[in-house]
Amino acid sequence: MRLVYVLDTNDLQAAADFWCAVLGFERERDQQHPSYLALRDPGGQWPGLLLQKVPEAKAGKNRMHLDVVVPDVAGEVDRVRGLGAEVLRPVHEEAGHLLAVMADPEGNEFCVVQQLGGGAGE
Question: In the predicted model, what is the mean pLDDT of residues 93-121?
Answer without folding.
Answer: 90
